[in-house]
């Protein structure tokens, strides 16, 4: 009985793990990309926020990756 309950709980957890928002993540509400998109929306333009902005500075660890 314990094995069947455990299996049912694991299957339920896996099923719920597949639920959620599909598509790219939204930018943080106070971030640069969100404020630029809000300003562009006021002007009637559309900005692609599906790709996050890249930082201008390189980190020292980037050479290792």
TrEMBL record:
Subcellular location: Cell outer membrane
Membrane topology, from the record: Lipid-anchor
Alphabetic keyword roster: Cell outer membrane, Lipoprotein, Membrane, Palmitate, Signal
Domain of life: Bacteria
PROSITE patterns: PROKAR_LIPOPROTEIN
Segment forming the signal sequence: 1-17
Any GO CC annotation of this UniProt entry: cell outer membrane
InterPro entries linked: LptM_cons (IPR032831)
Region (Disordered): 23-49
Biased composition, class Basic and acidic residues, residue ranges: 39-49
Main location: membrane
NCBIfam families, per database record: SS_mature_LptM
Name of the featured protein: Putative small lipoprotein YifL
Biological source species: Kaistia hirudinis
